[in-house]
Specification:
473 residues, alpha/beta, FAD/NAD(P)-binding domain, Flavocytochrome C3, Chain A, domain 1, eight-stranded mixed beta sheet, 15 helices, elongated, FAD-binding protein, FAD, FAD-dep_OxRdtase_2_FAD-bd, flavoprotein, oxidoreductase
Length: 473
């Protein structure tokens, strides 16, 4: 359909990406707008980055926090982001996302029917308050399923899957008027629309872009959606948008080598340690799982072992990813460290020294950790387990420059009318490299910017003098 005649729209909003973008689709529908969602992945419910996440969403000042006496605020969250990124994160976008984080999680529960709960059993690195909210099982597939089921029940949202957004059309004033969509057979159609939300994730699956922007992690396994090839980024750049923070990414140092499942950093936060292939600790594991991916990649053979015990094992079973790792047989068990060294191939002396160091530090008898780690919870005790891990790239954190209302900005810093971006298609709040990533700061821009884009579009649509036709194609 052609979008040349103002006011004659097939839909008000086209959402490209059925991950976090579904939050934007639902919010737009809630506000009375018509929506079309397109996605090239028929298996999106388990194949995109939202579905592969641990479903951790920051909400600073939420009602769950207030009910449990947790003191937090957007200002405190922003301070944590600033500290973790050493002041390199975009303060405007970070401040905007911190401000909407609590309203977002409360809307997800009330407006989208997501059964959220506040994580209190352990704290992720960099968060000074318990502000992460998640679902039972702590897996993104559960989160995405709830969003999808609500989308299916909405009469104002249509789904076109599999289909890929390949371009947008704009009028003489530069405002979006159409979304060019291509099916798997190569047939293209232009959907008349007043706005497009680029929720296509980043470029983690585009090997050439990763090698160019993220050389330190380029050789690591990519553990993300296969369609995260930078489509949204390319479309935006084609229409004069700017990009920023292209060297930022979320890595992970706890991908099980045997099963290619996520072991999870809860193991470390409950007292586990990581050693390299030879059995030696090589840093402060609690600095964060993202930056530790590059540290692991720099070790001999780019692999290592997370060493834990029965207590840590049992505490982590609340994570679906960890249970899948256990069920896949990725853990090696032994009654003592000599046997564990034999079964892992680690040097017995090095492994013994690493675990003895943890025990001494956890009991307060070891003084200060040589790497600066200050938290070990409890000493490791036999029987011991170890799981071999490799570094991974989960998703990229750089993309199109957006403002606090999720609008894509051009080279002069002005919004491109009707063009929005969220998640990995937008520039993130993780600063540079991998060191600034905080748990949940991938899902927050994915869900939060999508939600904000719909809010912005609804306000624009309600402005006197605008017209719309909500009939769907």
């Amino acid at each position: 359909m052609s979008g040349e005649q103002p006011g004659e729209w097939a839909v008000d909003l086209v959402v490209a990406g059925a991950g976090g973008g579904l939050a934007g689709a639902l919010k737009a529908a809630e506000d009375g707008l018509s929506v079309l969602v397109v996605d090239p992945d028929e298996q999106f419910l388990r194949g995109n980055n939202t579905s592969m996440s641990t479903a951790m969403i920051p909400g600073a000042g939420s009602r769950w926090q207030r009910a449990q006496g947790v003191e937090d605020s957007p200002e405190r969250f922003l301070a944590d982001i600033t500290e973790k990124t050493h002041g390199t994160a975009d303060p405007v976008l970070a401040g905007a996302l911190a401000k909407i984080s609590a309203p977002l999680v409360e809307w997800l529960a009330d407006g989208a029917g997501v059964p959220l709960q506040l994580v209190r059993d352990f704290s992720y690195p960099g968060h000074s308050a318990d502000r992460l909210h998640t679902v039972q099982g702590r897996h993104g597939s559960t989160l995405l399923r709830h969003l999808y089921e609500r989308v299916r029940r909405s009469p104002s949202i249509d789904l076109l899957i599999p289909a890929r957004l390949v371009d947008v059309e704009r009028d003489a004033h530069g405002r979006v008027t159409g979304a060019v969509v291509e099916d798997p057979g190569g047939h293209r159609e232009t959907i008349a629309t007043r706005a497009v939300l680029l929720a296509t994730n980043g470029y983690g699956a585009a090997r050439d872009l990763v090698e160019g922007h993220l050389p330190e992690i380029a050789a690591a396994d990519y553990h993300g959606g296969q369609f995260s090839t930078g489509d949204g980024l390319a479309i935006g750049l084609r229409h004069g948008a700017r990009s920023a923070f292209m060297d930022a990414y979320q890595g992970h140092a706890a991908l099980a080598r045997r099963s290619r499942t996520l072991v999870g950093w809860a193991t470390v936060m409950h007292g586990a340690i990581m050693v390299d292939a030879g059995g030696e600790r090589f840093g402060d594991e609690t600095t964060g799982y993202s930056e530790y991916a590059a540290a692991l990649a720099a070790r001999p053979d780019a692999r290592g072992w997370i060493v834990l015990d029965r207590r840590v094992h049992d505490l982590c079973l609340s994570f679906s990813d960890f249970r899948q790792t256990v069920e896949a047989g990725a853990l090696v068990w032994a009654e003592d460290l000599d046997v564990l060294a034999e079964r892992t191939g680690c040097d017995p002396k090095a492994l013994q020294e690493s675990v003895s160091e943890q025990v001494a530090l956890a009991t307060g008898e070891g003084g200060h950790d040589r790497f600066g780690r200050t938290f070990f919870e409890e000493p490791l005790r036999g029987p011991y387990a170890a799981v071999e891990v490799i570094p991974a790239l989960f998703h990229t954190q750089g993309g199109l420059v957006v403002d606090g209302e999720a609008r894509v900005l051009d080279g002069q810093g002005a919004p491109i009318g009707g063009l929005f971006a969220s998640g990995g298609a937008a520039h993130g709040i993780s600063g540079r490299g991998a060191n600034g990533y905080l748990a949940g700061n991938g899902l927050l821009p994915a869900l939060g910017l999508a939600w904000q884009a719909a809010t912005t579009l609804s306000a624009d649509t309600a402005t006197p003098g605008t017209t719309r036709n909500t009939a769907t194609s």
